[in-house]
Specification:
2 domains; seven-stranded mixed beta sheet; globular; D-Maltodextrin-Binding Protein, domain 2; four-stranded mixed beta sheet; 17 helices
């Protein structure tokens, strides 16, 4: 069995897919972005549009615009992901319009590639940019021998915790998940409504990140087929662990992290910690009375398998196939995502997640944090977390559909007592059916 690598990711099992882009090319795995003619550089000034959910992105664009009069960029806000932005991008692309550049999460890039919406940037020299980006994020845009987006920010995971309650129970930050469970049990002794963390069954993102950390590989290929395996050994280890955490009432399942309920409970030290992406620092800082009372540690890990961290969130700057100026768009997004000036501007104005540059985390992220007890947590925790990642994980098409299927199943943990282990098997069956329903060649693995 083969991993889904840069050479094969979307190229298998697509022969029967009835989409305009694929039917027009007559060969499995070829998308519209790959067969478009390579456009020459513009002969005069160009104007580019960038649809994104980053706040105050125009301030970043204006820094570029002031230095590059022949390539002007206009930012337009759109709702994040499935809240409306992706539908807007797809509709515009299908109609022959849309932006030059669009913000797309890593996990959704294959969907857009499958529909022929994105330009293959390899003919414009994108492969030469690989050293500018950390390997984890670069692997996610390197699809079917093409480069279909440029990494913009990422979310290496860590553990944010309140120091006083842990001191009260005599606990240090847990290194392993077994230690994490022990701390969670001690936390329950503080009061009937005190928990170490929450677990939101309505959002499968956290569970998927846990599986990725453990070494899961859900999507692979064999011959001309996709192979789905949601029940590999790492995933089942994670599922059994969180089944036990919920069954033993060691996590609060009443709300998700950073919800109003979470903030109220964290402010009263009823929720003591959160395992999340590096971008969680800004959200934790909204906790009432939290200044000087929080710190950050590496997330717990499995001593006998997997990796030290995982990813939760992260997005790309993708250039759409309808753009008449992909070269110029690539020039802008490369500046924005890989130069110190661009990275600092995005941190200052847009509060981006972790920098995708392997060499520069951002000037303001190199200093100790007063809120986090004077800790220089970015350099102490997240630099190494960004490097200790599962490089064998790849996303597949229809990821948003898969997440909905998973979340549907996970909800039954609370409503019907269905285990995560059983839900994963059912999610795999439904995902295989969903792939077949759109003409993808697929089978269940495991």
């Amino acid at each position: 069995m083969e991993d889904i690598t840069r050479r094969r990711a979307l190229g298998l099992g697509l022969g029967g897919l009835a989409t305009t882009a694929l039917a027009a090319c007559g060969a499995p795995g070829m998308q519209a972005g790959q067969i478009q003619p390579v456009l020459p550089p513009a002969e005069g000034p160009v104007s580019l549009t960038y649809w994104a959910w980053l706040k105050d992105l125009q301030n970043v664009c204006d820094i570029w615009n002031s230095q590059n009069p022949n390539i002007q960029v206009q930012a337009e806000f759109m709702e994040p992901g499935n809240d409306g932005g992706y539908a807007k991008q797809r509709a515009a692309s299908d109609a022959g319009g849309g932006p030059d550049i669009g913000q797309i999460e890593f996990r959704s890039v294959p969907d857009f590639v499958l529909g022929g919406a994105l330009a293959n940037l390899a003919p414009y020299g994108a492969r030469d940019l690989a050293s500018r980006y950390d390997r984890t994020t670069w692997e996610q845009v390197n699809i079917n021998e093409g480069i279909y987006a440029i990494p913009q920010d990422s979310g290496p995971m860590g553990w944010f915790y309140q120091t006083a309650p842990l001191e009260e129970i005599g606990a240090a930050p847990p290194v392993t998940w077994e230690e994490w469970e022990a701390v969670a049990r001690e936390a329950r002794n503080l009061s009937p409504d005190t928990y170490l963390e929450v677990f939101n069954v309505a959002d499968a993102s956290f569970f998927v990140s846990m599986a990725i950390q453990a070494g899961a590989q859900w999507f692979s290929t064999e011959g001309d087929e996709w192979v789905m395996n949601f029940t590999d050994e790492p995933t089942l280890r994670v599922a059994e662990f969180w089944d036990r955490m919920i069954d033993d009432d060691l996590v609060n399942t009443g709300y998700g992290a950073f919800s109003p309920g979470w903030y109220a409970a964290a402010g009263e030290q009823k929720i003591l910690s959160v395992t999340t992406g590096s971008w969680g620092d800004a959200l934790v800082q909204s906790t009432s009375g939290g200044a000087g009372n929080w710190k950050v540690a590496p997330m717990a890990s499995w001593p006998d398998m997997g990796y030290g961290s995982s990813q939760l969130g992260g997005s790309t700057a993708a250039i759409f196939a309808n753009s008449q100026h992909p070269r110029e768009a690539l020039e802008f997004v490369t500046w924005m995502t890989s130069t110190p000036e661009g990275i600092d501007a995005m941190i200052k104005n847009s509060g981006i997640g972790w920098s995708v540059s392997p060499d520069y985390i951002g000037e303001t992220r190199q200093a100790p944090s007063e809120f986090f007890s004077g800790q220089n947590y970015n350099e102490e925790v997240f630099v190494s977390a960004s490097q200790d990642q599962n490089l064998d994980w790849n996303w597949a098409p229809m990821t948003e559909r898969i997440f909905l299927i998973l979340s549907d199943g996970f909800r039954t943990k609370l409503t019907a007592g269905t285990s995560f282990v059983d839900s994963l098997a059912e999610a795999q069956r439904r995902t295989v059916d969903a792939f077949r329903n759109v003409g993808l060649s697929v089978r269940a693995g495991g």
